[in-house]
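Lab channel / #folding
Pinned by the channel admin:
"Please post every new chain as: sequence first, then the structure tokens as a reply. Keep commentary short and put observations after the output so the thread stays searchable."

First post following the new format, from NK:
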Amino acid sequence: MEMREFKNPGIREILDLLKQLSNDSKINKQGEEEMNEEKVYAEPQRGHVSLGGSLRVILFFIPVIALGITRFQQCKGGSDIQVFAGIASVVVFAIIWGILISGIRVAAQWERGIVLRLGKFKTVRGPGIMYIFPYIDNIRFVDLRILTLNIPSQQVITKDNVPAKIDGVLFFNVADVEKAVLEIQDFRFAIAQYAQATLRDVVGGLSLDELLSEREQIQAKICEVVEQRVKDWGLHLDSIRLQDIEMPEDLKRIMSRQASAEREKRATITKAEGDKIAATNLAAAAAIMEQTPGAMKLRTLQTIDGLGAGPANTVVMFPMDLTENLKTIAKSIAKKDENIKVI
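Reply from TO:
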């Protein structure tokens, strides 16, 4: 499709304006999509990593292969019934042996396994290799390391009715495996929900200024409240950290203007204090020069030297001794005639 060239400059300006408006709308739409884009959190590693799988495979195949080779040597050259009996014996042994070694488990150094026998709590085992009875015992592994949970963004209203969104991160570990499994259904979900509710309760009793300035105290208070509850679940709360505090855009602009006015106030006060100190120093210097007759002359000569030589500067020299002499003569005249005053 050919583009028609317009010779009229007014039409060309209109087309350029429309193109610029289209580009601006695309940029604004892209910016809105970036602002509305949800935050991406790091996904924690969950679940038990099976360390006994390779051990069970090795223990299964070595005896089965050895028995198979032995039965093959015995049945070699025999009848079909003997061959069939040899194969059947190997298969039956493999099934029974596979069931027996399926009870072998290996717990890592940071794991403990809680054993339930026919649905009833039996014991806590680990770390290392262990054996459970297949189809009778059931084992669940629990990680004892510090676990991390994201606290999603919570919509809260402060004490002075300011809406804000707060998210954070929770660090905890399992202190008692038996309680963590038997006392509560899902301790990860439970502690996350309890921390969210506590966060809303604590922040709801604070003003916006306290929320922004006393983050450490807020974290400590939330941690104390949650710790008192979760210790009955066999958990230990390490810490809670607040990450982002989001406020409405109009409130951010107001706070920005307030901060700018506060900075201007401090600058004005600092300048006034500087002027006050300078005036005090000048007054002290003037008093010292007045007491020392030669100090004023040296200061005058220093000022003249600082002017420098140039066509723009014109210096008219007037003898200072002549001025002093005229003052002395005036004072003597004033003593004789009381009506004359010397300035």
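NK: The radius of gyration is 45 Å.
TO: also worth noting, Residues 1-9, 31-37 have pLDDT under 50 and may be disordered.
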